[in-house]
Amino acid sequence: MTDAVGHPVVTIDGPTASGKGTVASRVAAVLGFHLLDSGALYRLTALASARQGVAADDAESLAGIAATLDIRFTGNDVVLDGCDVSHEIRAEAIGLRASAIAVHGPVRNALFARQRAFREAPGLVADGRDMGTVIFPDARLKVFLTASVEARAARRLKQLSDKGFSANMDDLLKDLRERDARDTARTVAPLKPAADAFLLDTSEMSIETAVDAVIGWYRRSA
């Protein structure tokens, strides 16, 4: 299959803590492609708007912030307004705020072109929630990762603990269920598999196995 426009794209969508970020980064490394962590853009918008005291329901103000973010991705570092915020944007409170502001159409529209601009030679692996359905509908390969909410909560707990954040399993389960409901029910770009996406349940699957599956699908699609 040939991409309709530009360089090849692999999209990896799925709910929070399904493993899409880790799988996407490893697939990008194997293929030698660029990587887009679309969730980071929403987290950056969440962080910047929180710093400015903008309410999570003020769609137009949030969109203005999203459109003018001064951001830079350097390796694993995420820089906002000249400061490294790689650790700060992974806080659970910022993730929850990012999910809340992502329901707004103006915010999603403001970030649309910024996400599309990551499509450069030799190719791109993009992870998020609407990469295959909205941002790159002509992607060469679309993958939708999922996992049970219990497996995802356990992964999220480990991620937060490893980064030095405190967390509670019951709270994480509640937050994930609420986030899933919000992401799938929103009227703009709801979380769902693209019609032509490969589905991959990672509940009891190692990262290595998931990466191998995606690489295999990609090579067979070329």
What does this structure look like?
This is Cytidylate kinase. One of its GO terms (molecular function) is kinase activity. It is found in: Cytoplasm. It is an enzyme of class 2 (transferase). It comes from Robbsia betulipollinis. The chain has 222 residues and is α/β, with parallel strands linked by helices. The protein has one domain (9-221): P-loop containing nucleotide triphosphate hydrolases (Rossmann fold), CATH 3.40.50.300. It is 49% helix and 15% strand. It has nine helices and eight strands. It has helices at 20-31, 38-51, 59-67, 92-101, 105-116, 131-135, 149-162, 169-185, 207-221; strands at residues 9-13, 34-37, 71-74, 77-80, 83-84, 124-128, 141-146, 198-201. The strands form two sheets. It has a five-stranded parallel β-sheet. A hairpin with a 2-residue loop joins strand 4 (77-80) and strand 5 (83-84). The longest helix has 17 residues, at 169-185. The radius of gyration is 17 Å and the shape is globular.
Mind sketching the topology for me?
Elements: E1 9-13, H1 20-31, E2 34-37, H2 38-51, H3 59-67, E3 71-74, E4 77-80, E5 83-84, H4 92-101, H5 105-116, E6 124-128, H6 131-135, E7 141-146, H7 149-162, H8 169-185, E8 198-201, H9 207-221
Parallel strand pairs: 1-6, 1-7, 2-6, 7-8
Antiparallel strand pairs: 3-4, 4-5
Helix pairs in contact: 1-9, 2-3, 2-4, 3-5, 7-8
Family: Belongs to the cytidylate kinase family. Type 1 subfamily.
Main location: cytoplasm
Enzyme class: transferase
Structural domain count: 1
Please report the first level of CATH classification, the CATH class: Alpha Beta
* Beta-strand fraction estimate: 15-25%
Order of helices and strands: EHEHHEEEHHEHEHHEH
**First-residue to last-residue Cα separation:** 6 Å
- CATH-derived topology: Rossmann fold
Give the helix level as a range of percent: 40-55%
The average pLDDT is: 92
Structural class: alpha/beta
Task: Provide the CATH superfamily.
Answer: P-loop containing nucleotide triphosphate hydrolases
Give the helix tally.
9
Largest sheet: 5 strands, parallel
Q: How many DSSP-defined strands?
A: 8
